[in-house]
């Protein structure tokens, strides 16, 4: 039984991301220990105004998010593509929680930090309004590069898969139902 954390990165109250995250969590719950977080429900200051130059106390919701990340063996991030990458509130949550001492640690004399979240895996489920092929190969797949390389790998989390659904804007109910079925398949085959 794997400890799975499903993160819905979409700040909207009603969205395809919410449906996909709910579907994943519901199916995985039958085989795994599952927790779900909706970024929209978290109350915190989004901006890291002083960068890492001064300590900014974490709000209770961010402390809880850090505890769930530490608990998890497998993270599932369900995010829309907004302006090429993740929504601002999710970016703020990453800025505020993936901190030195929690996610990584600088070592004097070394050019790369110690990865403090090793031993975890992740998968990305991405929704977008452009065709996935266009986004990935013409626009450069910014969300994947950002999350996989500069957040997850940097902190020691190994991304095992990435799934794209789009274009959402023109998807009919049959297409959306097919996407929900695909997410159920993913939840039935967690690779950690």
Automatic annotation (TrEMBL):
InterPro entries per UniProt: Flavodoxin_fold (IPR003680), Flavoprotein-like_sf (IPR029039), NAD(P)H_dehydrogenase_qn (IPR051545)
Transmembrane helix keyword on record: no
Family: Belongs to the NAD(P)H dehydrogenase (quinone) family.
Pfam families recorded: Flavodoxin_2
Keyword Glycoprotein on entry: no
Single GO molecular function: NAD(P)H dehydrogenase (quinone) activity
One of the record's GO cellular component terms: cytosol
Domain Flavodoxin-like fold: 2-184
Protein name stated in the entry: NAD(P)H dehydrogenase
Keywords: Oxidoreductase
